[in-house]
Amino acid sequence: MLECMAADRAFIAQKDAKILELEAQILALEGSIAELRIAKEPAQHRLDAFKYPVLTLPTEIIGEIFIRFLPPYPEPPPLTGILSPTCLTHICPAWRNIALSTPALWRAIHLDHAAVDDWLQAKETVTSLLPLWLERSSPYPLSIRVFDYDASTPLFTPLFRHQARWEHFEATCNHAGMFFMPALNSPMPLLRSLSLHFSTGNPAAVRSIFRDAPLLRTVSLDDGGSLSIALPWSQLTCLNLRCLYPEECLWIFRHASRLIHCTVDLWGGSQDSQEENEYAPGDIVLPWLETFVIRPSSDTDAGFLSHLVMPALLHLELPEVFLTWSKDDPTPYLKTFLSQSGCRLQELHIWYSSAPETVYRDAFPSIPLITIS
Fold it and tell me: pTM for the whole thing?
């Protein structure tokens, strides 16, 4: 028993000695820590007094930097992801406040469910974010791009409530049968450009009216869009028509007399030759048109150009098949058209030409620039 007690006392004494040793080391470390803290105080004071240049910028400048982070307006950024303005709200509270109070960051909206694999996830994303973007962008004009969404659903009700702020609107529907556009009969005082591309098999197209859009100048349409829209044709200056029959284009040209730039992609020959024959040669005058582009198509249309007079035409692009519908030589028909128009053409580009460039240069020496491809 005495031996056990002696062993315990020796053990305790050993541990007490170790504790004293460690406590001495702790005291020494605390002294060292105190010295280090004193030594770092001047440097810390200088750092605390320093302000990073970006944090000294006025809020307006930071907001402008944020705007430059996005694609140039009216090109819209992604609704989500690192390239979305939402990313700027996750950096710090100060930058979040600046981003949320900068309407220009939220004025261009791209709604594309194809960019999200999960349709339900895409729907939830739009449902939650669209009202927020519309609210944050107020009172700025809006650039809207909608791709393959059913815009007639309540999901898009907030979007159409802000119709008066639309400045650029683009809608595309590639799926037949998708009901894409409600009737748009409200005034759109800020609308400048409009692009509508619907599926040709869409049986539920609704006639949309854009007549009360005094600033509208640029329009892009395909056959589906052209059949479901009423426009102030006479005020348009830039027009892009895709997959339309010649008589549809001629009807539009008859009413769009102020065009300056026009691109057409004809859908083969005439849908009804009798309708096109209602227009006499030289019957439709486009007095301000400077650029006219006919995209290559699989078929040609006999005499399409003969109906048109373009006295201000400077730039002409078209496939050679449009010039050889009656003869192998492409130049006589083109000479007739240019003579009928009385224009001073500066540039001529012929697509899919079988004739060498010299043929055109010899036939049209007054045209400074002639290219073929």
Answer: 0.78
